[in-house]
Amino acid sequence: MIPANRPKDHAVASIVVPPVVHQDSPTADRSSASAATQPVVRRRTARQRRRRSWSALLWVAPAFGMYAVFVLFPMAQSVQYSFYDWDGIGPATPAGLDNWKAIFTRPELLNSVLHAFVLILFYTVLPVGLGLVAAALIRELRPGAFSTTARVVLFIPQVLPLVAAGIAWTWMYSSNGLVNQVLRAVGLDQLTRAWLGDFTFALPAVGVIGVWVMLGFCTVLLLAGIGKIDPALYEAARLDGAGRISEFFAVTLPGLRREIVVCTTFTIIAALASFDVIQIATQGGPGYQTMVPGVQIYRLTFLQQHVGQASALAVFLAVLVLVVIWPIQRLGREK
Fold first, then answer.
1. Does domain 94-333 have CATH number 3.30.230.10?
2. Fewest CB atoms within 10 Å of the CB: 12, 100, 145, 169?
3. Cβ contact 196:170 at 8 Å
4. Phi and psi dihedrals of 262, rounded to 5?
5. Residue 160 has what DSSP assignment?
6. Nearest to 252 by CA among 272, 280, 230
7. pTM for this one?
8. Closest CA to 161 of 284, 275, 293, 262
9. Are 320 and 231 in contact (CB under 8 A)?
10. Cα-only R_g, the chain
C-alpha cells in the first residue's frame, strides 16, 4: 500500500542512459592520416631524386662529352686498329693477333717494355727512398731561410719542362760537359765517356735524369705528410727511448703510407709512360739501348707508318700500367 501522506505528484525518477557515440581516438586519426600521406611523400621524394639526378647529369655532360670525344673514342679506335695492318693512309687489312704477338716476339718491342721496368728503379725506388730521407732531415731543421731554400731547390726540377730538363742534361752528359769536367777535376779521367752514347751507361744515365726530376715532387709531398703526423707520437717514442732511426721506422714511415702510395703511383706511371726526356736526350739510342714504349709508339706511327702495331703496343702499355698500379692503390685503401 501507498502511504496516504505521499505526495501525488511525486514520480519515480528513471535513469536515462545516453547513447554511446563511438569516436576515433587522436592516435588512430594520426596513424590513418600518415598512412594516407606516405605514398604522396614517397612520390615527391622520388621526383626530387630524379630532378637532382638530371641536374647532376646536366652539369657533368659537357665534361663527359669532351672526355668521350678526346679520350674514350681514340682509345676505342686504338683497340680496333691493333687488329689491323694499316699505314695510316691506305686501306687497312685485318691482321688478327699478329700485332699482339709481335710485342712478345720482336726483341726491339719486348726490350722497350723491359727498359720501362728498369726505369722504375730510377723514377720510383730511388726518388721515394731519397725523398723519405730528405723529408725526415728537413723536418729536423728549424723553420727559416735555409729550410725554405732547401725545399725550393728540391722542387725546382718538377716545375721545369721535361724538354728543358732533357736538353740541359744532354749538355752535361756530353764529352766536355759538366759531369766529365767534374770527373777530370777529381782525377777520375778514366771514367769520362760520352754517357748518352755508351751502350752500357746510356739507360742508367737517362734514369739519373728521372731521379733528379722526381725527387723534388716526392720530397715535398712527404714533407706535407709528415706535417700531419701528431707530434705526440714523436714525444711518446722519445719517452720510450727511441732514437732517430727507430723513430723514423716506428712513427714517420707508418704515418706516411698514403703519401708513399701517391708518390709510387705517380712515379711508376711516369716511368712506364716516359717519353719527353728520352726523346730529347737519346731518341731511344744508341741502338735500342734506351728505347721505351712511348718512343717506340712514336717511331712506329710517324716514322715507320705501322699504325696497327703502334696501337697494339699503346693498348698493351695502358693495360700494363693499370695492372701495376691496381695492387698499389688497393694497398693504400687498406686500414
1. no
2. 12
3. yes
4. -65, -45
5. S
6. 230
7. 0.80
8. 275
9. no
10. 38
Residue among 67, 94, 66, 69 nearest 80 (CA): 94
**Are 213 and 129 in contact, with CB atoms under 8 Å apart?**
no
Calpha distance 280→300 (Å, rounded): 17
Cα distance between residue 178 and residue 17, in whole Å? 119
Local structure of residue 306 (DSSP, 8 states): -
Say which amino acid occupies 216.
G
What are the start-end ranges of the H helices in 18-125? 26-67, 73-81, 98-105, 107-120
55 band by pLDDT with thresholds 50, 70 and 90? confident
Residue 85, phi then psi, degrees to nearest 5? -100, 110
Contact by Cβ (8 Å): 296, 108: yes
**Cβ atoms of 92 and 308 closer than 8 Å:** yes
Query: In the chain, what is the greatest distance between 2 CA atoms, to the nearest angstrom?
Result: 157
pLDDT per residue as tens digits for the range 285-328: 899 999 999 999 999 999 999 999 999 999 999 999 999 999 99
Alpha-carbon distance of 265 to 35, in angstroms, equals 54
Cis geometry, peptide bond prior to residue 286 (ω within 30 degrees of 0): yes
Give dist(CA 108, CA 284) in Å, integer: 10
| Closest among 65, 117, 134, 151 to 267, alpha carbons compared | 117
Cell numbers for 101: 704477338
| Residues pairing with 93 in the sheet | 85
